[in-house]
Amino acid sequence: MARIAGVNLPNDKKIDVALTYLYGIGLTLALKILADMKVDRNKRVKELTDDEVNGLRNEIEKKYRVEGELRREILGNIKRLKEISCYRGSRHSKNLPVRGQRTKTNSRTVRGNKRHTMGSGRKPAGQKT
Predict the structure, then answer these.
(1) Residue 88 included in any domain
(2) Which of 30, 53, 65, 95 has a CA-to-CA distance to 21 between 20 and 30 Å?
(3) Does this model's pTM top 0.85?
């Protein structure tokens, strides 16, 4: 089992899909990394040699921010927005949508306005009250 950036990659997946298990690496970036390393994208993780695994590990750790480092950076950015009390920071602190989405009909449960349908919770008509 290959271990990259503290994450165990699943053995039976193709390497391009398995790399997406790392936080911060999507399919496009995974394909780019494999092209740079000249690794066949159709190989399974269990078919990789130790040299290929070490090469991928070194490439990812040197060039890209993944997992804990990326999560810390994102949390730091959100914390900075909250501290300077900008609009986006205030939306983050209130747990509301930040990027201009409507809130009248969507994100109701976040706002504490969970409406049920009219018939929810009603007893069947044949039952005594």
Answers:
(1) yes
(2) 95
(3) no
